[in-house]
Design brief:
44% helix; seven-stranded parallel β-sheet; Rossmann fold; six-stranded parallel β-sheet; 2 domains; alpha/beta; single chain; elongated; 389 residues
């Protein structure tokens, strides 16, 4: 198949999954065209050496123009035009849009333009839309976006969601009649796996401290400050620990200030964005994800694939991923005391830690591998292509 993929090319989970999907599809013989405003982060290493070169992955930049007449950049329209251009000249079979707004909206408009000109087979290009969460739970609930959201979903040929929770939220919020397939996120177990991180651990915890870790884009919904407050409770309980915070975003400054105010600055390490996560995760003891809303929790899955138990909130798709008592623990969102208590339990009981570590690794590597999930997307593409005009 000749596939166009549009996603946000950033550090967030949707962009990571879309990029890894494209790479996996290319390895399975498909031609993959990324149509984005910047090179996706997980593509930046491809092609630096001959062994990394993949000759059936292509990148098409959405170029933005500015005009004095328009107060805001016209990204959606520029994206639509680029989709039309790539579809025509590369003869795409379908466009896979990650996020309903604005990506599926632009794809639907591009399809209508192509259908109107009737130049080639691309006049019947198919649209597959994957819902990742923020588009449904936050953006889509803005009253001004509701009609556009529903139209974009209903106009797609096939729609998928990354969790049962997100599928049900979409149907409940918008009353869509469109069938939505659940295809969870996945990891590459050749990349995310337990590795020898003894030297890194000695560097990060020179006095034998326990290592907690959190990875996110530091938005308010991630509730990173809850995890920092939990660290304070853990330290006050007499456990020597350090907290690794990976990523960047609008709440990072407030989180750093809170660590200073609580007097635990020396026990926190804000590492910023990191590309080599497997070694950092493998060096860690517990992964904390206290989000106020999470449609899936890709960072938690990556931790589990490295054998790290997870303590998460009980919202969204997290309980579908993090099985309470088997891969870690689930606590009520906002319950900092419970977050700290469950983390302390794992840190203080080596046998429990070992059990949860094995459970996390087993669950991640049986249910969420690219070998299992990528064929689900291929089947979704086939369903889209089989649909009559």
């Amino acid at each position: 198949m000749n596939i166009g993929i549009t996603c946000y090319p950033t550090y967030g989970g949707s962009g990571v999954v879309a990029t890894e999907l494209g790479k996996s599809l290319a390895s399975r013989g498909h031609r993959v065209h990324f149509i984005t405003y910047a090179l996706p982060m997980r593509l930046t290493g491809i092609g630096h050496t001959e062994s990394e070169y993949i000759d059936n992955i292509f990148y098409h930049e959405v170029e933005m123009s500015t005009y004095p007449l328009f107060e805001f950049p016209l990204y959606s329209m520029a994206l639509t035009s680029k989709m039309v251009e790539v579809a025509r000249f590369e003869k795409l079979d379908l466009i896979h849009a990650h996020y309903a707004i604005p990506h599926a909206t632009s794809a639907v408009l591009a399809k209508q333009i192509l259908h109107g000109d009737g130049r080639s087979l691309t006049s019947d290009i198919k649209i597959v839309t994957t819902l990742h969460g923020t588009d449904i739970t936050l953006v889509g609930l803005e009253p001004s976006f509701e009609p556009l959201m529903k139209f974009s979903i209903e106009s797609s040929d096939v729609v998928t969601a990354v969790s049962r929770y997100l599928r049900d939220e979409t149907i409940g919020n918008y009353g869509v009649s469109k069938e939505i397939d659940v295809i969870p996120n996945f990891i590459d177990t050749e990349v995310f796996r337990p590795v020898d991180a003894k030297n890194l651990r000695r560097l990060l915890a020179p006095n034998g401290e326990k290592l907690l870790i959190h990875i996110s884009n530091f938005r308010e919904v991630k509730r990173v400050k809850d995890a920092i407050r939990a660290l304070k409770i853990i330290l006050d309980a007499g456990v020597k620990a350090k907290f690794l915070l990976v990523g960047d975003g609008p709440d990072r400054g407030e989180c750093q200030a809170l660590a200073r105010d609580l007097g635990i600055w020396q026990q926190t390490r804000f590492l910023g964005k990191q590309s080599e996560l497997a070694s950092i995760l493998s060096a860690s003891d517990v992964f904390l994800i206290p989000s106020g809303n999470e449609s899936f929790g890709l960072s938690a899955l990556e931790a589990m694939a490295c054998g790290v138990p997870v303590v998460s909130s009980d919202v969204g798709g997290l309980p579908e991923l993090n099985v309470d008592g088997e891969t870690g623990f689930v606590v009520k969102v906002g319950d900092v005391e419970a977050l700290a208590e469950r983390t302390l339990q794992i840190l203080r009981e080596p046998k429990l830690h070992a059990k949860l570590s094995r459970g996390a690794l087993r669950h991640a590597t049986t249910e969420f591998t690219k070998e299992r999930i990528v064929p689900m997307y291929e089947a979704a593409y086939e369903r889209a292509l089989s649909r009559a005009r």
